[in-house]
């Protein structure tokens, strides 16, 4: 079985929270214990936008998203002032998980936002470019 991880977060207590596609969650506790949770299939998200990896990045990063059904998908990058900096995806896609590489070689350092629109679903996340 192959598991694709979507995020890693360390909390103030030193616990490492690890998320995977489909809603699975593992908590690697600072005391050495591990807790694994599988989400109920009836509550699994059918639409997702993951945090880019790596973040901060230089000069490229990967953005992963999922869609539940065939639909038009738009993935755009915006600078801190809301100006469009890049168009990564603008086409109809079948249901599935996708990873897009974003190369920011020609952009200045700073905070950027990436916005996914798939059908009526819209989500935005923040990323940091550090050169």
According to CATH, what is the topology of the largest domain?
Immunoglobulin-like
Element-by-element helix/strand order: EEEEEEEEEEE
Count of all domains: 2
Which radius of gyration do the C-alpha atoms yield? 16 Å
Mean pLDDT: 82
How are the SSEs placed, and which strands pair?
Blueprint: E1 5-10, E2 16-20, E3 25-28, E4 34-37, E5 48-49, E6 60-67, E7 71-79, E8 84-93, E9 96-103, E10 110-118, E11 121-129
Would you mind describing this structure in some detail?
It contains no helices and eleven strands. The protein has two domains: 5-42, no CATH class; 45-129, Immunoglobulin-like, CATH 2.60.40.2550. A four-stranded antiparallel β-sheet has the order 1-2-3-4, with no helix packed on it. A four-stranded antiparallel β-sheet has the order 8-7-10-11, with no helix packed on it. Helix content is 0%, strand content 56%. The chain has 131 residues and is mainly beta. It has strands spanning 5-10, 16-20, 25-28, 34-37, 48-49, 60-67, 71-79, 84-93, 96-103, 110-118, 121-129.
Nutshell version of this structure?
The protein is mostly beta strands and 131 residues long. It has strands spanning 5-10, 16-20, 25-28, 34-37, 48-49, 60-67, 71-79, 84-93, 96-103, 110-118, 121-129.
Features:
mainly beta, 56% strand, single chain, Immunoglobulin-like, 2 domains, four-stranded antiparallel β-sheet
